Amino acid sequence: MTKISTDGRIVLTCNVNGAPVEAELPTARVLADFLRDDLGLQGTKVSCGRGVCGACTVTLDGVPRAACQAFAFEAEGADVRTIEGLADADGTLHALQTAFQARSAFQCGFCTSGMLMLLSAKLAETPRPDRAQVVHWVSANICRCTGYALIVEAVEEAARTLAAQEAAE
Amino acid sequence: MERTEHDTLVATTQSGLPPFALYRPDSRESLQTALAEAPEPVAFYAGGTDIFAAFREGLRPGSLIWLASYPDLDGIVIADGSLRLGAGVTHDAACSDPALDAVPGLRAAWEKIATARIRRHATLGGNLMARRERYELSILLGALGAMALLTDGTGSTRTAVNDLWDRPSDAPPVLLERVEIPLTGTPRIDYARDLRPLMTQALVRRDDGDTVAVATQWVRPWITPATSTTPLADLPAAFDTPEASRDWISAAGRALLSRQRDRLA
Question: Domains in chain A, ordered, with CATH?
Answer without folding.
Answer: 9-85 (3.10.20.30), 95-168 (1.10.150.120)
